Amino acid sequence: MPYTGTVQVGGPADVHELRDLMISKVAVGPMDNNAYLLRCRATGQQLLIDAANDAGTLMELIGGDGIASVVTTHRHGDHWQALAEVVDATGARTYAGRYDAEGIPVPTDVPVEDGDTLRVGEVELTARHLVGHTPGSIALVYDDPHGHPHLFTGDCLFPGGVGNTFGDAANFVRLLDDVEHKLFGQLPDETWVYPGHGSDTTLGAERPRLREWRERGW
What we know:
- It is a single chain.
- The protein is α/β, with parallel strands linked by helices.
- The chain has a single domain (14-216), classed as Metallo-beta-lactamase, Chain A (4-Layer Sandwich).
- The chain is 20% helix and 33% strand.
- The strands form three sheets. Strands 1-2-3-4-5-6-7 form a seven-stranded mixed sheet, covered by helices on one side. Strands 8-9-10-11-14-15 form a six-stranded mixed sheet. Strands 12-13 form a two-stranded antiparallel sheet.
- The longest helix has 16 residues, at 169-184.
- It holds the Pfam family Lactamase_B.
- InterPro entries: MBL_Glyoxalase_II, Metallo-B-lactamas, RibonucZ/Hydroxyglut_hydro.
- This is MBL fold metallo-hydrolase.
C-alpha cells in the first residue's frame, strides 16, 4: 500500500519507505497526536519523534530493537505524556529544543539549537528552531539524498496554516516569519511535511497561501 499519512488513533501505522530511512506514523491519545518512528535501513537504529501518548502503542511500534533517542518537538503536554515510560523502558537519550527543555518534566539529555545535527544510524536530521507556538519548538529536516526533503514540524506548520499562537499577534508574526524563512525559504515545494496532528502535506501545497495566512493573522 502506498504511504498516505492518514492514520487514526487505535489504527495501524502508516509506513513511508525511503531508500535509507523508514518512517512509521501512528496517531495516539485524546488529542490525536502523531508520533513518528524513524529507522535507519543500514544500521537498524531507531529514533522516535514525540512520545505523545499511549506508551503501549509506541512500544509495540518500536519493537524489540528499541530506540537510541527520542525527540520532543516542544513543551506542550500532549506531546510528552508517554515520554517517561518510553525512556524508562528503552534507555533512550532525550532531545528537545533548548528553550523548551525546562517545560518538559523528563530531563533533556541533549538541548537542541537551530542548525544542530541529530543522527539516527547513518541518517542525519537538521533541527530548525521556530518561535511562536512555544519559545523552543523545533522542526527536523531529513534531506533525502535520493529524493526530496522530509520535514517534521511538530505544531508549527499544518495543512492550512501555522500553529496556534493563542491570540498573541507578535508570536504569530514571529512564527510565520520563522516558518517562511527557515522552512519555505530553504526547502523545495516537493518537501513532505509531517505535522504533530492530522494529515501530511507538502510545502508546495501550502506555499501559495502564505500571504493569506499573514493577512488573516492566524
